[in-house]
Amino acid sequence: MNVGDVLERSAHVERINLVMYAGASGDFNPIHWNETFAKAVGLPDVIAHGMYTQAQLGTLLVELAGGDPGRILSFSLRFSAPVVVADDGGAELDLRAEVVAVEEGVASVSMTARSAGVDVVKDAVATLRVA
Amino acid sequence: MALNPEFVGKQYPDTAPYLIGREKVREFATAIGEQSPVFHDLAEAVRMGYSDLPAPPTFAFVLTHKAMAAAMFDPDLGLDYSRVVHGEQAFEYRRPLVAGDEVVVTSHIADIHSRGANEFLVTQADVVSLDGELIVRTRGIIASRGTAA
Is A37 within 8 Å of chain B by CB? Predict the structure, then answer.
């Protein structure tokens, strides 16, 4: 793991992915699967769970860590905009992780996630044990 | 209504013991599109030194969101649920959660503050084994829009 290492991936998100995440996580808030409810509370449409987006970035961290989640020491971010998931067409999520520093065996990683042209997270950072 | 700052430090009762199941780990990994073998293949997990399948890093939230909800729905705190959004989420890992771990979540309100018209409720929730080993420390921030005094 070296400074400047970059991983990029695009994830296509459909409603079915949010339903699966709701079931797997136990978060059944209807804003993540019921369009009528989401619009009634002022959202443009169904939105992805914030934790679904963070989990997508987590898959990049695991890959940077050589497939071993035990090397991940910390992982934090702010949610800055919703990922709007249309019934027809879903949403695209563009994910990026970059190693920005390596000191004393610990790599610092900075991440971004964008959907529909906006950053949906901010200050997304993690630390990984290099080996 | 503004949140009551006297609630900083309030502890919530530990959650009921939760036994992390191997198939739950596989189900969660599948739901997030995580295909790394260590989350699905027992032999690969053992080869990496785990006693069973480790859980992906954000799995801890499956456990801690219940503790966060206890604060969110605390009738004495005064949070208007229709105005809240998940603002921030942080994890500090001592090690991954692994299938077979039986854990509880111990939580308290770490901070309440406001910025502009918004208020922020910060909950610290620790995932702890039944014999007291701290495994993951989490901090979740719930933003309450437009409720600052």
Answer: no
This model of the complex carries an ipTM of 0.97
Chain centroid to Cα B127, Å, comes to 8
* Residue numbers in A near B32 (CB within 8 A): 21, 24, 52, 55-56, 58-59
Number of domains in chain A: 1
A-B Cβ pairs (cutoff 8 Å, strict): 107
Question: Which of B57, B65, B88 is closest, CB to CB, to A58?
Answer: B57
CATH of domain B9-18+57-144: 3.10.129.10
| A54 interfaces chain B, CB cutoff of 8 Å | yes
pLDDT tens track for B24-36: 999 999 999 999 9
CA dihedral B79, B84, B85, B88 (to 10 degrees): -20
On whether residue A28 sits in a domain, the answer given is no
Q: Is residue A63 part of a domain?
A: yes
Q: Is residue A65 part of a domain?
A: yes
Provide the domain limits for residue A124: 6-12+48-129
Q: Is B53 on the interface with A (CB under 8 A)?
A: no
Half-sphere exposure for A126 (CA within 13 Å, toward CB): 30
Whether B66 shows a pLDDT value over 80: the answer reads yes
What's A120's domain CATH number? Answer: 3.10.129.10
Closest of A5, A9, A93, A89 to residue A49, by C-alpha: A93
Which residue is closest to B45 within chain A, CA to CA? A68
| Inter-chain residue contact B36 with A62, CB threshold 8 Å | yes
Tokens of residue B143, six digits? 């933003």
The per-residue pLDDT for B1 is: 54
Give the separation between CA A69 and CA B54, rounded to whole angstroms. 8
